[in-house]
TrEMBL record:
PROSITE patterns: TRYPSIN_DOM, TRYPSIN_HIS. PANTHER family: FI18310P1-RELATED, POLYSERASE-RELATED. InterPro entries: Peptidase_S1, Peptidase_S1_PA, Peptidase_S1_PA_chymotrypsin, Peptidase_S1A, Trypsin_dom, TRYPSIN_HIS. GO terms for biological process: proteolysis. It comes from [Phormidium ambiguum] IAM M-71. The lineage of its organism: Bacteria, Bacillati, Cyanobacteriota, Cyanophyceae, Oscillatoriophycideae. Keywords: Disulfide bond. Belongs to the peptidase S1 family. Residues 41-318 form the Peptidase S1 domain. GO terms for molecular function: serine-type endopeptidase activity. It holds the Pfam family Trypsin. It comes from the Bacteria. This is Peptidase S1 domain-containing protein.
Amino acid sequence: MAFPHFQKPFKSLKYTITSGVIIIAGLFVNLEIDDRAQAIVVSGDPNDYIVNPGNGFDGVVSLSLQTSLGRFLCSGSLLPSGRHILTAAHCLTDNFGFNITNGATAFFDLPTGKFGIKTANIFIYPDWDGFADFDSFGGDLAILELASAAPEAAQRYDIYRNTDEIGQVSTKVGYGLSGQGNQGFNPRQYPFGVKRSGQNVYEFLGENLDPGVLPNAILLYDFDSGSPENDAFGFVGIPDLGLGLSEVNTAAGDSGGPTFINGLIAGVTSYGQCFFNTINFECFSPPDVDNIGNFSFGEFSGDTRVSTYASYIDDVLAGKVTPTSKVPEPNTMFALFTFAALAVSSRFKRKAKEKV
């Protein structure tokens, strides 16, 4: 599946630049998979950002999604009901917003082992139209209802309902590919399936950077190296040099994963971007560290703003929303001590320039 670039002009003091969405729709990494998700790309050594079971993020899950296009891998987070996983709609749909998922399993990494629970119902935000039309983008949100309650050891997370996210330090968690900021993601050395976390700061609402984004739908953050040269939003008038070694970006495999403010889910990983040249489609450097859309320093990403969709989430958990689809034979919970069934193929393909 290919993902479109959207192009909108923005002026900086140096030149007119173009914003390019480099979209992954989840980390499509499968036995024969595209890419659809995102993972954490970090400022330091990726091994220093690993989250082990029992450290407060056991309710952040990896998702195995069986679709008409193959098996996709994404991330998600357990909501207060203990039966619902919040994730990104694009993990479950095609590029036009149509559901293509016919089976899904959430995997919990706990101190006692790995547990998988199948999904019974899928709820896709009704106004989600996919990435095909960035003139009215928003609503990249979905909820999976599990066939049985999650283990008690898995933390449940409430959602962030305030609208003061801009400027706040947030914590991102996901299972996607990883790598170091100077080079971007490295699927061979840091494959999907390892939970990592790090921090960033929301600096923009999506519509402030691109008028086509629906109001209040997207929270944006850039990936700073600490140098003004790689400060993407500094080029559009919002200078900030980041959080040092704590700073991370999301990448393939993290899609649907949570961003926390004060322990509450404030964002859902959605997409990534760079400012790119419309002639050769390379990322502008500066700010990008290497001219390539690979979640490296100088690129930026967008999360679905959870506070905007709080009432929809509440209604799903209260049983007031009809499922988008039901998943057949959902009643199995099982423990795993290996992850072989979800091994990421070294042959995974990237059909378009990436996103977060």
